[in-house]
Amino acid sequence: MPCSEAAVCGRTRMGRQWGILKKIFGWYGLLGCVFFMTLGTMYYKTYQLMAISEEMVGASYRLSSLAKIMIDQLLAMEENEKKFLVLRNPQYKDYFASSMKEFEARLSEALAILEGTEDALPLENVAQEFHSSRMGVLMAMDGEPADRLWIPEETLDRWIQKLSLFKEMEERRTELAHRTLQQHGRTALRWGFIGIVVSLVACLVGALSLARSIRRPLKELQRGIRALTRKGSAEPVKILSKDEFGELAFAFNEMLHRLSEEERLRTDFLSMLTHEIRNPLTTVRESIGLVEGETMGPVSASQKRFLNLARRELDRVGDLLEQLLQTSRLESQPLHLDPQVIGPGELVAAAVDRTAPLGQAKGVSVQLSVAEDLPNIIGDMDHLQRVLMNLVANAVKFSPSGATVHVRAEKDAEGRVVFSVRDQGPGIPRAEQPLVFRKYYRVSSLQDRFDGTGLGLHIAKHIVEAHGGKIWVESEPGEGSAFFFFLPVKG
């Protein structure tokens, strides 16, 4: 059996790389890495969002709220101070003191939040001025009522302006934090989407690659197994990987190699055995002829009957040896053809004439039918006669006494010449019909009732296909069988 370059037919074990399980774990490990990296990125971005949110709510938003409260308290101080100067109601003095105390508390809280930062400078200026004027304000409030304000209006306006600027700054910072929050949110979504897409692509690529790495060697093995099943022989399959499928292909090629060696030895043995047996058979046949010719003395009727029986058995053994020899030749070398122009009627008539004695001996009639105006065919006359003779001989053998075998030559719808041989035998089960052309195959239900080697149809198939034709069977159990084959026409 020849070995292709891609196939390994040696006796050394092939090296093994990535197995199927490693490929699966590798691809899904990569997918898992991408997936967890995506989750990690999304978690980190989410953590950043939470930190920014906490900072925005805990600091900027609080400072902005404190600035608003302090402005409100300054306005309340100014309002209560003016009301007291106009109405001289001590209650407004208490309101003023309460607002000043609240202002001082909120200012201290804001300074504590901003301690050590440059943003505390505006509030520190306000606090410094407030503490500088605080004692004077308290003394003025404890003294006799006067027409002047406890805190000058321009001072209050200056503090309110500074606090308003501080409040606007914190609001801008809050807005900036909000924008940063949105940006990080969009980034997290983008990376999450990219991670999902990459995961899907990696999963798809991995699945396709894994499926391809499994499908290709399986199809190659399937091709080799089908060829071995249909033809009985096959070329070595290509080893497309170094995993378990590669080892399976290697083992399959080793099996083919061993089968080829065994088939070659068996064919050589059959060829040698056939040649060795034919010589003594020829001697025995000639000896029987001499005895039948009474060259050695008179022969009685009973002796002639046994001599005829011996001659028939010798002919049967001779036919068997001829089939074995021809099968051996067909498998060891290409069939040699001597193509010539043949008339379909001439071919069928010659084959029927040569098999007529078989039908007469069993009481089976053979009817010949050849359509008119059939085109000539191209082929080897001797080989094609053997095909028809094998088919007619089988039809006679399997038909009961008194039956009729129909041999026809006609043209089909495509203009091809189709030959058919139809018997009235027991038929072939549908499940076994594809197997009847295999070497040595015999229908299981007929093995005990009819003799045979299972080589005739195998030889016929080889000859027909060597001519570029096709042979097939149609049969129903209990209704007989019909064998068909077509051949290329001239031109």
UniProtKB/TrEMBL annotation:
<dbReference type="InterPro" id="IPR003594">
    <property type="entry name" value="HATPase_dom"/>
</dbReference>
<keyword id="KW-0808">Transferase</keyword>
<dbReference type="GO" id="GO:0009927">
    <property type="term" value="F:histidine phosphotransfer kinase activity"/>
</dbReference>
<dbReference type="InterPro" id="IPR005467">
    <property type="entry name" value="His_kinase_dom"/>
</dbReference>
<feature type="domain" description="Histidine kinase">
    <location>
        <begin position="272"/>
        <end position="491"/>
    </location>
</feature>
<dbReference type="InterPro" id="IPR036097">
    <property type="entry name" value="HisK_dim/P_sf"/>
</dbReference>
<dbReference type="InterPro" id="IPR003660">
    <property type="entry name" value="HAMP_dom"/>
</dbReference>
<dbReference type="InterPro" id="IPR003661">
    <property type="entry name" value="HisK_dim/P_dom"/>
</dbReference>
<dbReference type="InterPro" id="IPR036890">
    <property type="entry name" value="HATPase_C_sf"/>
</dbReference>
<keyword id="KW-0418">Kinase</keyword>
<dbReference type="Pfam" id="PF02518">
    <property type="entry name" value="HATPase_c"/>
</dbReference>
<dbReference type="GO" id="GO:0000155">
    <property type="term" value="F:phosphorelay sensor kinase activity"/>
</dbReference>
<dbReference type="InterPro" id="IPR004358">
    <property type="entry name" value="Sig_transdc_His_kin-like_C"/>
</dbReference>
<dbReference type="Pfam" id="PF00512">
    <property type="entry name" value="HisKA"/>
</dbReference>
<keyword id="KW-0812">Transmembrane</keyword>
<dbReference type="GO" id="GO:0005886">
    <property type="term" value="C:plasma membrane"/>
</dbReference>
<keyword id="KW-0472">Membrane</keyword>
<keyword id="KW-0597">Phosphoprotein</keyword>
<keyword id="KW-1133">Transmembrane helix</keyword>
<dbReference type="Pfam" id="PF00672">
    <property type="entry name" value="HAMP"/>
</dbReference>
<feature type="domain" description="HAMP">
    <location>
        <begin position="212"/>
        <end position="264"/>
    </location>
</feature>
<feature type="transmembrane region" description="Helical">
    <location>
        <begin position="188"/>
        <end position="211"/>
    </location>
</feature>
<feature type="transmembrane region" description="Helical">
    <location>
        <begin position="24"/>
        <end position="44"/>
    </location>
</feature>
<protein>
    <recommendedName>
        <fullName>histidine kinase</fullName>
        <ecNumber>2.7.13.3</ecNumber>
    </recommendedName>
</protein>
